[in-house]
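MODEL INPUT / OUTPUT PAIR
PAIR INDEX: 1
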Amino acid sequence: MKPAARITVRPVPMVGALVLAGLVGAGVHAALPDHRPPAVAPQAAQREVQPAGSGPMRVEAGMPAGFARTQEGAMAAAASFVTTGQALLDMDAFAAEQAVRQMAAADAADGQVRDTIAGLAAARSALADGSGPIVFRQASIAARVDVWSPDRTRVAVWNVGVLSRAGVAPPQAGWAISVFELVWERDDWKVWSETITPGPAPIPDASAAPATSEQLAGALNGFVDPRSGR
């Protein structure tokens, strides 16, 4: 039997949606205008993401929205945006475009839509030979504000995405640091660009053997994302 190929899916939910190693190099690395905020020292140490009161306060076009115009709100926005991959995978092309435009800065939206739609199509094609649902669970582990002003900020998020589909993608975790350039626009934080650096990736401990796709689905039957209820 031909062994299942390892497919690595990066948690890039909007500016590229999904990156399949060797297949799609996604991500919009747009140049910021000359009036980017002044460089400042990183803001303290890493903090846990999504502090209380920072948002999201609502859902628009299937995406999180309504973040505070604070450093905590910017961290919550970046942490939320980086974990929308499953929602985008579940959408058709029209809905995905509306979702991306909801999260994107107006001047960067066209490029983000183009790369997202292409990334989603490539991901579905690469996983097409499998059976059952495509499962892509994501989490933001920690965040850091590197540059701050009330109008434009830079936030780094350490995150992980776990991909699984029976027959083609045994459960696998991809780790990355996503650096978001966010702008305050339309009374909310919007993404101007995102840059992704793989890792740092911890090694698994020996407490459990790696699960198959079927074992993962069985063990997590009934589990939902606590943020979305899905």
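PAIR INDEX: 2
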Amino acid sequence: MAAVVFDLDGTLVDSLADIAASTNVCLAAAGLPTHTQNAVRGFVGHGIGVLVERALGAHATAARVASLLAAIRTHYQQHSTDRTRPFTGIAELLQTLARRRVPLGVVSNKPHEMTTHIVRELFPEVPFGFVAGESRDIPRKPDPTGILTACATLGVSPSAAVYVGDTSVDMQAARAAGVRSVAVTWGFRDRAALEPSRPDHWATSPEDILAVL
């Protein structure tokens, strides 16, 4: 395989504590019910807009969604790396891939400015050739635009790339883009939740990704 493109949250980094904290701080400030960290785990994966709608639940109105979305964006931008860290073995995996001169990319459903900030903060020495989150030009996965743009920017065809992620949305996006998919089992979804999406490969540790390559 000539290139590896990664999802961010639940794949490269364990960001659940910071996502849950920002969500709950903003809900509490609005006088609304908060959620356990495990509940927030089920809200993530489809972008910040869906997270807000799920967090509000029966309290959702157009005005509340807009207000909470703005509040979480502001708070999370300032606190997105308070407790977020790479998963065990990820730094070593990325170092190995970089030494082998494997083109590397990141495509996330997190807003673009948050995605690039976290990658800069936590992986300053990794030579990612493409990093993108949701933006006007890159729709949320499972739309394949982000992965296809990553392949084009990295100079490889989709058939010469793999996409590594932790949710069924990631597997759907990989299939739509025509790249091989690798489902990791250390992220926000367990294997049972991922099996219906029929990934091409499984990774129970970062080292397994080297075996796929």
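PAIR 2 NOTE: The chain has a mean pLDDT of 95.
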